[in-house]
Design brief:
Bound molecules: histidyl-adenosine monophosphate
Subunit structure: Homodimer.
Largest sheet: 8 strands, mixed
Shape: elongated
Strand content: 15-25%
InterPro entries: aa-tRNA-synth_II (IPR006195), aa-tRNA-synth_II/BPL/LPL (IPR045864), Anticodon-bd (IPR004154), Anticodon-bd_dom_sf (IPR036621), His-tRNA-ligase (IPR015807), HisRS-like_core (IPR041715), HisRS/HisZ (IPR004516), HisRS_anticodon (IPR033656)
Helix content: 25-40%
Radius of gyration: 28 Å
GO biological process, one term: histidyl-tRNA aminoacylation
Main location: cytoplasm
GO molecular function, one term: histidine-tRNA ligase activity
Number of helices: 16
């Protein structure tokens, strides 16, 4: 039998109802805050991700599904959505009428990481991006939105981590200080970090290898190197979070795994998923739109990892399951044909109706109705057809009433 590819998964009925509820809540919340949905392709030119996420990141170096198509173009299954949303903002000149735009998108991303709990090769994100505003209020509002989302969907035990990565003025100074520290600590670093410490020293702060973590414990902090503008921006983000009563920890090591960030970065972390502790992450990326050939517009955003989120929320899929409203137990050919017409009419009215096509006994049909969790059963046989009245049984109270066949759809609708 052909099985799933490792790291990929099916989301089955019985689980999918929770996903649907989460997505519905996210759409409604984001739309209430002025975000518009944008749908972007799953395949993009490989170069888009190399230039935005950065050549020296784990994602681009090791994790992208990149292949040449039949014409030899190098294309990639998107590992994240931000780069594509920025490409779209530039390509369609979405900034022309008003540079301030807010988008959200929900869908699958692909990274060839080592699969484990909370880490998949195809995973889903709810992504939100704001363009054209540099105000620290936006950074705080994004974090506020995340905290509202998590609260609404019963995910507790989450911690907000924030940091600032400075800008093109102050970050080079920090990189210099970090490089000096790294050359002294070289012996303790993993081979990836040794290689990266020259080309992209910030990445070393993000390394999860235990020897690197301990070697970096006393590394210089970016927060001691921020220019006055970045410092003021970061203070304003923190003040706004306090105003929103959102507790947070300042985490000077939070550089995130993507190179496009400037100023604020943040992550929502959980203790419930072992090593995969980030349920959402994001930040500001003021240089990316220009770097990809667009106007000099600031931007900020976040992505929630849906796969991780469903594992930590207290909500259960069964609370959103839609069992049949009615099961029509039909006995005999004539009743069956009548039941079929009714089931279609119920469907059109938004009433979920099921019936048995196999001509089974009443007892076995009742058993199936029970197994499906039907709330009511309509029993119709030759005798009922003759008498022009059928039995409606409430499966919870076990109460039975006779209802006339004429106008049956309306009558049942009233009784449900
Ligand atoms: P990211 O931190 O790479 O950021 O991913 C965001 C979230 O996606 C993570 O916090 C995690 O919950 C989930 N995630 C990432 N990789 C996996 C995986 N292999 N399996 C399951 N879940 C995963 C971004 O992608 C940025 N584009 C976020 C952003 C938007 N920054 C600005 N705007």
């Amino acid at each position: 039998m052909i099985q799933l590819i490792r790291g990929f998964k099916d989301i089955l009925p019985g689980e999918v109802e929770l996903w649907q509820h989460i997505e519905k809540t996210a759409r409604s919340l984001l739309e209430s805050f002025g975000f518009k949905e944008i749908r972007i392709p799953i395949l993009e030119h490989a170069e888009l991700f190399a230039r935005s996420i950065g050549e020296d990141t784990d994602i681009v170096e090791k994790e992208m599904y990149t292949f040449s198509d039949r014409k030899g173009d190098l294309i990639t299954l998107r590992p994240e959505a931000t780069a594509s949303v920025v490409r779209s903002y530039i390509q369609h000149k979405l900034y022309a009428k008003d540079p301030v735009r807010k988008f959200y998108t929900i869908g699958p991303m692909f990274r060839r990481e080592r699969p484990q709990k909370g880490r998949y090769r195809q995973f889903y994100q709810i992504n939100a991006e704001v363009f054209g505003i540099d105000s620290p209020f936006i950074d705080a509002q994004l974090i506020f939105l995340l905290s509202v989302f998590f609260k609404k969907l019963s995910a507790t035990e989450l911690k907000v981590h924030i940091n600032s990565l400075g800008c093109r003025i102050c970050r080079p100074e920090f990189k210099k200080a970090l490089s000096v520290f790294l050359s002294a600590a070289k012996e303790e670093l993993c081979s990836d970090c040794r290689r990266r410490s020259n080309r992209n020293p910030l990445r070393v702060l993000d390394c999860k290898v235990p020897s690197c973590c301990s070697a970096m414990a006393d590394a210089p902090s970016i927060l001691d190197h921020l220019c006055s503008e970045c410092s003021r921006h970061f203070e304003a983000v923190k003040n706004a979070l306090e105003k929103f009563k959102i507790s947070f920890v300042v985490d000077k090591r939070l550089v995130r795994g993507l190179d496009y960030y400037t100023r604020t970065t943040f992550e929502i972390q959980t203790g419930l998923l072992g090593a995969q502790n980030a349920v959402a992450g994001g930040g500001r990326y003021n240089s990316l739109v220009k770097a990809l050939g667009g106007p000099d517009q600031p931007a900020a955003g976040f992505a929630i990892g849906l796969d991780r989120f469903v594992e930590i929320t207290d909500l259960k899929a069964k609370d959103f399951a839609q069992n049949p409203d009615i099961f029509i137990a039909a006995l005999g050919e004539k009743s069956m044909s009548m039941a079929f017409d009714w089931s279609c009419a119920f469907g059109l009215e938004g009433i979920i109706a099921e019936l048995d096509f196999a001509g089974k006994s009443l007892k076995s049909q009742m058993k199936r109705a029970d197994r499906l969790g039907a709330k009511h059963v309509l029993i119709v046989g030759e005798k009922e057809l003759e008498e022009k009245a059928v039995i409606l049984r409430n499966m919870t109270t076990k109460e039975q009433v006779m209802i006339p066949i004429d106008d049956i759809i309306e009558t049942v609708k009233e009784k449900l």
